[in-house]
Amino acid sequence: MAEQSDSGQDKSEDPTEKRLKESRDKGQVARSKELNTLAVVMVAAVGLIMLGPEMGRRLLDLMIFNFSIDRAALYSTDTMGLQLLASVGIGLDVIGPLFFMLLIAALVGPVLLGGWLLSAKSMAPKFERMNPLAGLKRMFSLKALVELLKALAKFLVVLVTALFVLNLFQDQMLTLDRQPLPDAIEHSGYILGMALVFLACSLILIAAVDIPFQLWDNKQKLKMTKQEVKDEYKDSEGKPEVKSRIRQLQREMAERRMMGEVPKADVVITNPTHYAVALKYDPIKSGAPIVIAKGADFTALRIREVAAEHEIIVLESPPLARAVFYSTELDQQIPSGLYLAVAQVLAYVFQLRQYRAGQGKRPGPMPKPDIPEDLRKDE
């Protein structure tokens, strides 16, 4: 299993949300260099079409500025330095807007596929890349073959596009030498911009093939084996035996807390052996008796033992014990349908306490409580 997992032969399961998040934290997301190139070229084309004529005129003015130096200025040692600084400032002002557009395209292009991501792990040096065997493996991998095919495809597409652009603008380019210099410069900027538009259109075809491949390739790298999915589930949810032990400890803690409440009960009603419920009635705090402990079998036995240790009255009433056990949760009031039956029991308990305290006569047998049909639970 380990060997198959290492070789990736049985990685047939889609990556889990945890695996995707971990890969993103490591910077492993789908990226397309062709999409980045397309964004830059498209913005360059639009920028040249929009700004090309104005850039051409201003560059022509810059040429005139540099070739129109006074004779007196030629004899000054400071002229060339000042002329250079002025030319640099004008040049940056001319090409600055286009460069700014290209900078935005270069930043936005990678975000178009995979989103914005800044990962320190991806910037950390990876010494395994220095392994010659790993390098050879990458050179002869499927991805390397795809990259080679992409490079050949790009070369052919760009070649065909260049030939098409040359044929399309051949007559216009041949007439540039007969145009006035300002018009020729402006016309050259337009031709260059249109050439980039056609080049960008050709790159759309390459990007349309590369983007699905990058998404598929990234998903293949993140696929998991069945064992990896099971191990991840165990790590995130906990091993079954550990979870079972935790639930057991929780039950034991809850039972200890419940047994600690039994001494506060007014009465314990039993089945007599299968069920036991402990009731507490506080007419000031609650309008109805509350179940503070209940249990079946061994737990019922423990409730009876604790009640006996603390001299809590224990009464046998199988129908009422079953009805309360199944209809009421811990720390909840009994349902209204059992008010009369429980009231009869509490009245009997009060009489029994009075008798034990020497303040009344011995009560007779406990009256049979009246249990509604919808609350009856047969054995």
TrEMBL record:
Highest taxon of the lineage: Bacteria
Ranges that cross the membrane: 35-52, 98-120, 148-169, 189-216
Cell division in keyword set: no
Amino acid composition bias (Basic and acidic residues), ranges on this chain: 8-28, 370-379
Region listing for Disordered, in residue ranges: 1-28, 358-379
Record's bilayer topology term: Multi-pass membrane protein
InterPro entries reported in the protein's UniProt record: FlhB, T3SS_substrate_exporter, T3SS_substrate_exporter_C
Primary localisation category: membrane
Function: Required for formation of the rod structure in the basal body of the flagellar apparatus. Together with FliI and FliH, may constitute the export apparatus of flagellin.
Protein name: Flagellar biosynthetic protein FlhB
Taxonomic placement: Bacteria, Pseudomonadati, Pseudomonadota, Gammaproteobacteria, Pseudomonadales
Gene that this polypeptide is encoded by: flhB
